Amino acid sequence: MPDTVVSVYQATLTFAVAAIALLASPGPATLALAASGAAYGLKRSVGFFAGITLGLVIAMTLVATGLYVVLHSFPIMATVLTVLSIFYMVWLAYRIGTAPPIKDEQAVVTPGWGAGFFLGAANVKAYAAFAALLGSFTLGTAPAWEQAMKALICLLVCVVFDFLWLFAGSKLRRLFIHPTWSRVLNVSFAILMIATVAWSFTLTQ
Predict the structure, then answer these.
(1) What is the distance between the alpha carbons of residues 20 and 34, in angstroms, rounded to a whole number?
(2) How far apart are alpha carbons 182 and 165 in whole angstroms?
(3) Stated pTM of the model
(4) In the chain, what are the domain boundaries?
(5) What whole-number distance in Å separates Cα of residue 55 and Cα of residue 49?
(6) Are 107 and 43 in contact (CB under 8 A)?
(7) Residue 95 — φ and ψ, nearest 5°?
(8) 71-81-24-155 Cα dihedral, nearest 10 degrees
């Protein structure tokens, strides 16, 4: 019995480390949160953060239940969803890249929870990560609890590390006072977002 408990702990720790590596690494959502924190501030980005979290829950549910595989078994539907997610992420990168300096922030409409929700639910990197984590790891617990435990760990990793990305971005905020630095940082975030979107799609090939 003790050996079994130790084995479960070791498997859980390994899974948690893998979850951090896959879900906390730079991607469209994490970079968007950092960019939003830098451009709009922590408080004004909370809704965006909440929307991304909810969208990731939907993405994880689709993967866990197998519905994601079913949706992508229809080529036309898969293509439409892919094109929509690409256009949306490029549009969001454009919004961030063209955000005005802090002195003009009162006139800016910040990304809300709806924008975050769509980004989380359409995040290809998240789908690839959830598929790898939920389908390739075994914790050694009872089958009824196995998937629930893995999903809970994934959710905790997403919430904690996404918030850290948002917080880290907000600490860059003082650099956005200068118009030139503001433009350089906004455009850099936008380019990195588009680059990670392109990279994310290679994970599904």
Answers:
(1) 17
(2) 18
(3) 0.76
(4) 2-203
(5) 10
(6) no
(7) -60, -45
(8) -50
DSSP string, 139-181: --S-HHHHHHHHHHHHHHHHHHHHHHHHHHHHTTGGGGGSHHH
Gap between the Cα atoms of 153 and 188, Å rounded: 31
Which residue has tokens 């959502």?
29
Which segments of the chain does DSSP mark as H helices, in order? 2-23, 28-40, 46-65, 67-71, 75-97, 113-121, 124-136, 143-170, 179-203
Residues in Cβ contact with 106 at an 8 Å cutoff, skipping those fewer than 6 apart:
none
Angle between helices 113-121 and 75-97 (to 10 degrees): 140
129's tokens: 């990560």
* Neighbour count for residue 205 (Cβ, 10 Å): 5
Q: What is the identity of the amino acid at 46?
A: V
Mean pLDDT, the chain cut into blocks of 10 residues (205 residues total): 64 88 84 82 90 93 78 68 74 73 55 85 82 79 79 93 92 68 72 71 55
Pair of tokens at residue 161: 């590390």
